[in-house]
Design brief:
With about 80 residues, the protein is mostly helical. It has helices at about 1-15, 40-55, 65-70, 75-85. Helix 1 (about 1-15) crosses helix 4 (about 75-85).
């Protein structure tokens, strides 16, 4: 799971062009939105598209479940692992 979290961190950095942010700067359990990494709704859309392209995920934009999956890198990794299983 740690390798998948690392992969997702790299995807976040590249998809959102987070200059000056390294993989080590992103805590897998920290919130992605608001506090923590500080992403916004535009970032969520871009990240969702990157996840769809990379892992073939299908996500509903207004779903409460999707919001839970986007809560942290760890939550995204669990979703990707479940989809790939």
């Amino acid at each position: 799971m740690q390798a998948l979290e690392s992969e997702i961190k790299q995807l976040i950095i590249s998809a959102l062009s987070l200059e000056g942010v390294s993989e080590n700067d992103i805590d897998a359990s920290a919130p992605l939105f608001g506090e923590g990494l500080g992403l916004d709704s535009i970032d969520a859309l871009e990240l969702g598209l990157a996840l769809q392209k990379r892992y073939g995920l299908t996500l509903a934009a207004d779903s409460q479940e999707t919001r839970q999956h986007f809560s942290s890198v760890g939550a995204l990794a669990k979703l990707v692992a479940a989809q790939q299983a």
